[in-house]
Design goal:
Helix content: under 10%
Distance between the termini: 40 Å
Number of strands: 10
Order of helices and strands: EEEEEEEEEE
Strand content: over 45%
Oligomer: single chain
């Protein structure tokens, strides 16, 4: 069964950093585009960053220069290094593959 499991969320002060991880299983990870998306309370899903199977990294404008997406095809993992966090970054963060499979999410809370 295809599965994505996120981890690494938590409570951090504004200006701080967190590193999110996503472990993939049950599908050929290296052939999939992978994404991070987030959902803030009362809002819809918002695309954050993507990493294609060809190695291209893309970012939403609001995270450029602060977040870095990475993948390790040997370990079937996706990560998101988040620096200079602000309260507006508070959300549940999900990793997602190009089939639309999404994990259960990991919550990030940034206090002011």
């Amino acid at each position: 069964e295809a599965q994505l499991v996120e981890s690494g969320g938590g409570l951090v002060q504004a200006g701080g950093s967190l590193r999110l991880s996503c472990a993939a299983s049950g599908f050929p990870f290296k052939y999939y585009h992978m994404y991070w998306v987030r959902q803030a309370p009362g809002k819809g899903l918002e695309w954050v960053a993507g990493f294609t199977q060809d190695g291209e990294q893309t970012y939403a404008d609001f995270v450029k220069g602060r977040f870095t997406i990475a993948r390790d095809n040997a370990k079937n993992t996706l990560s998101l290094q988040m620096n200079s966090l602000s309260p507006e970054d508070s959300a549940v963060y999900f990793c997602q593959n190009s089939d639309g499979l999404r994990g259960q999410g990991t919550q990030v809370i940034v206090s002011s």
